[in-house]
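Weekly structure sync, notes
Attendees: PL (lead), two postdocs, one rotation student
Agenda item 3: pending single-chain targets
PL asked that the sequence for the first pending target be pasted directly into the notes so everyone works from the same version. It is reproduced below exactly as submitted, 256 residues in total.
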Amino acid sequence: MLICSGRQFQCAALGIVLLTVITRLPSLLHAQPINDEDVYSIVANEIVDGGRPYIDAVDRKPPLLFWTYATVFEAAGKFNWKALHAVAVAWTLATMAGLFVISRRLFDRDTGLVAALLYGLFQPWAVANNLAFNGEVLMNLPIVWACAIALGPSLSRVRTELLAAGALLCAGFLLSCRHAHDWVFWNARSGGNRPQQAGYRPRRVLLDDHQSYETTCLLGSRNSNHVGVRRGLLASADRCGDGVPGCQRCMGTQER
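Predicted structure, written out during the meeting:
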């Protein structure tokens, strides 16, 4: 591969950054949620309001995803979609930087530029829903940088930096891995952190119909609403049977 000069390398790197931003302009200019962002944001804003994930708002996603969303909304305002999408672009660029570091260490810096370019092009790949700030995009960053640290040089036989790499891998699991968060979800739901008063249910239960189980309604505590979710549609009612979209129990009640 032809080795770029310093000036050429800087121009190529800047061009890749600009191309990445341009290909994501639709999301930057879109002041609405993309795909599952609306569901994640509901739990995140419950956290911003002092709620607890898996207790006051339940969705079967890992906790660090909600905390990341909550951090963005805490800083930029609740349901600030443009800020969320700007963070998504910055997150993607940071992941591309990690791929550059890995490829440079394994091969050379030109290969690193190609690796970053390919990720920037193929991660959305002409599908609008792929522009969403979802768990896959989130988990790529810590995993890539964990690999970059593990593949880096070390001056001692005891590689203490691998502890940081391991911590990043754990963060990646808590951002998107289903098996990592199932334990948290079911522990919270089965009483590990749940208040023991009779009749307690989470205030918001968010279940998408693309998952393998049916969407159902759960009655909340005194100040809670009854919530049902159907693939990007959230509706609430005071009690089960009021016809919440996507709720099998509500539909059964209406049929009777």
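Discussion points:
- The radius of gyration is 22 Å.
- The beta strands are 57-59, 204-206, 226-230, 233-237.
Action: rotation student to compare against the earlier draft before next sync.
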